[in-house]
Amino acid sequence: MTLQSNKFDKSEEVTKKLANYSAELSYEDLSPEIVDWAKYLCLDFAGVALRGSTTDSAKAVVNAIEQLNRPGASTIIGTSKRTLPEYAAMVNGTAFHSIELDDVNNESSLHPGVVAFPTAMAMADVVPVDGKSFITSVVAGYDVMVRLGRALKPVEHYGRGFHPTGTCGAFGAAAVAGRLLGLKGDSFAHALGVAGSQTAGSMEYLAQGAWTKRLHPGWASHSGIWAALLAQSGFLGPTTILEGDNGFLRAYSDDADPGEVLRGLGEEFLITQTGIKPHACCRYNQGPIDCLLELKREHDLQPLQVKGIRVGVLTAGFGLVAHPEEQKRNPSSVVDMQFSMPFSAAIALAYGRAGLNEYAVGVPERPEIRDLMAKVKCVADPELDSTFPKQWRAWAEVDTTDGRNLRSDVTYPKGDAENGLTWDEMKQKFTDLSNPVISPERQSEIISAIESLDTLDDVRQLASLLAT
Fold first, then answer.
1. Does the pLDDT at position 1 exceed 50?
2. Per-residue pLDDT for 355 more than 50?
3. Contact indicator for 241, 247 with CB cutoff of 8 Å
4. Which DSSP helix (H) or strand (E) runs through 52?
5. With contact defined as beta carbons under 8 Å apart, do 21 and 266 qualify?
């Protein structure tokens, strides 16, 4: 505790500085590259949320809201339904997170887009929001979430049983909503203070393959909108919510570094350090999947040729995807599959892909998959950890029945900011995901609207295109 206390200097006023940055950020501060990243990630949001809207978890949230009979103007993506803004943000955030294909920032080990985009879109039904304001608020939301996530330190935060997307998400949503409401000074800090009492996200979903992780960003968006609205109405929150003796950073990590919140603030925009998921599962599985896909392609590996499989897994993700071993080798739900390295390795080697069709009910019972899962050994490798969280490196080895030992290593898995999808690949991802939900004509309209997002007079034009 002494070491942690020495890092905290209340005179730094971390909360107020982060609030002032979020309030004062302007579109003119953003380079063309940053604007392009925001559009690129917005297209990912559109495709993943549209497909996510078809999941049972997203439909359950819609059904719960309908029972309240709370009509409103805000779009529930992938449906013809509308509701109050804070409820729409909750549904759309849940849908966006439900198929494990949303964006990821490695350094903070969280998903900023699932909170920032649904919140900004919902706020367009509270106050006028044009494309430039939308982009600027989203950039601020990404910055707030990522800065808090890296300050907590992912290994420490996970070790306390928290999901950083949910906990940091409430602050990110408050920043997005507060900016769009025009909050300034202490009012903005009060919004963050109110959000700080709503930071939630338990990792216990892993125990039973529950849907609660999917709700975390939706609830964060709902909470952040209310935090900003309360602050606008004069409600007081603690303006030392981040750095205080009982504040967020001390309470949610055993080794938080408040300096990481302000490092490079206003100079580097962390939206450009956020990557995309090509595979429909936990981010900690993605690097090993890339390695195994490479081995399968290069050596034309077939399941019956595989004698043994070893994969290097980052310590931060070991408890998410590799332990307990027996449970991870016997996934019984889609969530279990998404967070199982043995299952992910098996489908990669069996089918040469790891998409939504593979993470589906019934796949774990297939003989070839059960056989391969039993051959997977996950290894916690300190060498991989040495460059984490800057790099999410991975490796995989396959021993074959004819005596070969095959190995593949990756430094930047496909989708990382350093190894990203091209715009064309992103458009293909969007098209593939949204095909079951909307027409090709609507797909073209959405792509066009997002490519010209900075010229939109009213973001509700984009929201209406995401309805059915």
1. no
2. yes
3. yes
4. helix 32-52
5. yes
CA distance 118 to 219: 11
Angstrom distances, CA of residue 125 to CA of 15, 119, 120, 230, 420: 28, 11, 10, 17, 33
Angle at 174 between CA 62 and CA 320, to 5 degrees: 65
DSSP string, 179-223: HHHT--HHHHHHHHHHHHTT---BTTHHHHT-SHHHHHHHHHHHH
- Residues 377 and 301: their CA atoms lie apart, in Å, by 18
Note if the bond before 367 is cis, omega within 30 degrees. no
* pLDDT at residue 4 tops 50: no
State residue 9's pLDDT score.
78
Buried b (16+ CB within 10 A) or exposed e, 71-101: ebebbbbbbebbbbbbbbbbbbbbbbbbbbb
What phi, psi does 406 have (nearest 5°)?
-110, 140
**Which amino acid is present at 208?**
Q
pLDDT digits (tens, 9 = 90+) for 88-127: 999 999 999 999 999 999 999 999 999 999 999 999 999 9
Q: What's this model's pTM, rounded to 2 decimal places?
A: 0.95
% of the chain with per-residue pLDDT over 70: 98
Q: Describe the strand order of the beta sheet including 376-380 as a list of residue ranges.
A: 376-380, 306-313, 394-400, 405-410
Beta bridge mates, 407: 397
Residue 398 exposed, middle or buried by CB count within 10 Å (0-12, 13-18, 19+): buried
Helices 32-52 and 113-123 sit at what angle, rounded to 10 degrees? 90
DSSP string, 316-353: HHHHHHTSSHHHHTS--SHHHHHT-HHHHHHHHHHHS-
Q: What is the pLDDT of residues 397-445, one digit of tens each?
A: 999 999 999 999 999 999 999 999 999 999 999 999 999 999 999 999 9
What tokens appear for 211 in the block? Answer: 């849907």
Spatial CB neighbours of 357, under 8 Å, sequence gap ≥ 6: none
Angle at 292 between CA 288 and CA 294, to 5 degrees: 115
- Of 331, 326, 327, the C-alpha closest to 359 is 331
Q: Which amino acid is at 458?
A: D
Give the chain's end-to-end CA distance (angstroms, integer): 53
The three-state secondary structure class of 393 is coil
Contact 151, 249 (CB under 8 A): yes
* Average pLDDT of every residue of the chain: 96
